């Protein structure tokens, strides 16, 4: 089943194995402006090796770093990772604690490189509900990179798209009540402006690893016309080569936005 769906939606391109060939091919065609990634499969990767789930997240972190470097070097404008959903709080406490410590670790190991690369780090999600040390790390990332003008790197942490839409609707209702905007002026642009992704282009390409074929409450409004690319590869095995393959497949899609 998944193989046929993969053929339909893209999947891995087996014909071009060589990294340099792939890179050269990608650079000849327009790049997606915004790539969003659902990094799934860390737990299964660890289980297959008899390791605790947290080992999968540690291995996944390395792939996050490699993918940031690959996106930056290609000249992608926006890269978004779905790192922790509002539903992920239901996981065992030790796993949640571990995931909440990842940004603190990442700050120590990667902040300087991100600054050197001119990357601007932003958060999507309710930061205030994360532990105080995590909040401090996330705020430090945002503060120390806020004037950077290169790749925009979003981490969706404690993020849920329906929640984001509910909050946007409430804000718009408030503005209508205050008379700042007329009800009839509420349109797609106004809604987009009230979402956490305000000011960013919608994702052109969404990658999901681990063979799951779902969106899982991720950027529901923003993905209306995104191209979806699925792979069976578990996130801790996701290489820059696979990232390039996803982009190359994207470049061969025909995006019609409902037209013919
Ligand atoms: C999904 O795999 C993965 C996560 C919930 C966590 C992803 C987080 C990272 C890759 C690191 C993020 C980095 C920062 C700095 C925030 P899963 O646990 O659902 O895997 P499974 O489906 O195999 O159980």
UniProtKB/TrEMBL annotation:
Kindly indicate whether the keyword Magnesium belongs to this entry. yes
Q: What is its EC number?
A: 2.5.1.-
What does this protein need as cofactor? Mg(2+)
Group of enzyme by EC: transferase
What is a biological process (GO) this protein takes part in?
polyprenol biosynthetic process
| UniProt xrefs under InterPro entries | UPP_synth-like (IPR001441), UPP_synth-like_CS (IPR018520), UPP_synth-like_sf (IPR036424)
Q: Which of this chain's residues are annotated to bind Mg(2+)? A: 40, 227
Write down the superkingdom of origin.
Answer: Bacteria
Q: Please name the catalytic residues of this protein.
A: 40, 88 (proton acceptor)
Where substrate binds, per the record, is at 41-45, 53, 57, 85-87, 89, 91, 208, 214-216
Q: Which UniProt keywords apply?
A: Magnesium, Metal-binding, Transferase
Please give the family membership noted in the entry: Belongs to the UPP synthase family.
Describe, as the record does, how this protein assembles with itself and its partners: Homodimer.
Q: Which NCBIfam families match?
A: PRK14830.1 (NF011405), uppS (TIGR00055)
PANTHER family attached here?
Answer: DEHYDRODOLICHYL DIPHOSPHATE SYNTHASE 2, DEHYDRODOLICHYL DIPHOSPHATE SYNTHASE FAMILY MEMBER
What protein name does the entry list?
Isoprenyl transferase
What is the native source organism of this protein?
Answer: Lihuaxuella thermophila
């Amino acid at each position: 089943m998944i193989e046929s769906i993969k053929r339909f939606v893209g999947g891995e391109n087996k014909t071009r194995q060589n990294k340099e060939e792939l890179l050269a091919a990608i650079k000849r065609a327009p790049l997606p402006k915004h790539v969003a990634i659902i990094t799934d499969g860390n737990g299964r990767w660890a289980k297959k090796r008899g390791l605790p789930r947290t080992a999968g997240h540690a291995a996944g972190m390395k792939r996050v770093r490699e993918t940031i470097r690959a996106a930056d070097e290609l000249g992608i404008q926006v890269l978004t990772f779905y790192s922790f959903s509002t539903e992920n709080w239901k996981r065992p406490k030790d796993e949640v604690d571990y995931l909440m410590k990842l940004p603190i670790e990442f700050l120590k190991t990667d902040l300087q490189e991100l600054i050197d690369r001119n990357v601007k780090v932003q958060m999507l999600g309710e930061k205030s509900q994360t532990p105080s040390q995590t909040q401090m790390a996330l705020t430090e990332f945002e503060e120390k990179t806020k004037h950077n003008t290169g790749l925009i790197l979003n981490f969706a942490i404690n993020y849920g798209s329906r929640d984001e839409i509910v909050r946007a609707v409430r804000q718009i209702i408030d503005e209508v009540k205050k008379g700042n905007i007329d009800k009839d002026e509420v349109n797609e642009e106004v809604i987009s402006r009230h979402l956490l992704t305000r000011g960013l282009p919608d994702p052109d390409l969404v990658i999901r690893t681990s063979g799951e074929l779902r969106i899982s409450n991720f950027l529901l409004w923003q993905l209306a016309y995104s191209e979806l690319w699925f792979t069976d590869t578990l996130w801790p095995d996701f290489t820059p080569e696979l990232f390039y393959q996803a982009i190359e497949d994207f470049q061969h899609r025909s995006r019609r936005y409902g037209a013919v």
